[in-house]
Specification:
13 strands; about 30% helix; about 25% strand
Length: about 230
């Protein structure tokens, strides 16, 4: 991003938080709270990553996976979904996943913070049960540093959609090793969650932008769940 093309307020925020800065989570969050609307950054393994403006290329699949989880939550008591929400993952990481699922009474909780302006803010603390990220390319941090962070912190399932490769990855945490292992889609390109009964993802429909196809497959998973 060229600082000549942004407002003085946003440019000042970028000067306070720069990609590559090494900060604790508390230091990062204190600075992040001072930034204006429209500024986005994450702390991954103690390193700041300032995000570029979000394009429609990213926004459409982000909307689709948000809707996919929204529909699952609507039929599943005791679970909540959050889009683009700050997560206090651990002392050195504060990501802002595209979408995540949290089980009530599970590994994460909602915490209240009062910022320096006296405003109350609610954040997620601890690892969500499922995280979904949309990455433009396989070189993005979502496939490397962020995956390592989610694995270390105890996220149970991690779904990553890589746009340039037209590929979806799904990892599940092995309870015995604490490491992520690949989940394979079936012959039709459908993933089935191991933690959330009935949560099925039609990757062919997702990659084709077929919203109806994504929801239809999810409904099939929910129907199968209700029969068992």
């Amino acid at each position: 991003m060229n600082l000549d093309n942004v407002s003085p307020l946003l440019a000042g925020a970028m000067a306070d938080l720069k990609s590559g800065d090494h900060l604790t989570r508390e230091e990062f969050h204190s600075r992040y709270e001072q930034t204006p609307e429209g500024f986005h950054a994450e702390l991954i393994k103690g390193i700041v990553y300032v995000q570029s403006p979000v394009s429609a290329t990213h926004g459409e699949p982000h909307s689709m996976v948000s809707g996919w989880l929204f529909n699952y939550v609507a039929k599943t008591p005791g679970i909540r979904s959050y889009s683009d929400s700050t997560v206090f993952l651990d002392p050195i990481s504060e990501p802002q996943p595209d979408v995540c699922l949290c089980v009530e009474g599970g590994n994460s909780r909602l915490v209240e913070r009062i910022n320096e302006k006296g405003q109350k803010r609610i954040y997620i603390e601890g690892p969500p049960e499922l995280v979904v990220e949309v990455a433009v390319s396989s070189a993005d941090i979502d496939l490397y540093e962020k995956k390592e962070d989610y694995e270390r912190a105890g996220v149970l399932e991690y779904v990553l959609m890589v746009l340039d490769d037209s590929k979806v990855h799904w990892w599940h945490r092995d309870a015995s090793t604490g490491k992520f292992g690949d989940i394979d889609a079936d012959g039709e390109g459908v993933f089935r969650s191991r933690e959330h009964d009935g949560l099925w993802l039609n990757t062919k429909a997702l990659l084709a932008g077929d919203v109806a196809g994504v929801i239809t497959t999810l409904e099939q998973g929910l129907e199968q769940r209700n029969k068992s």
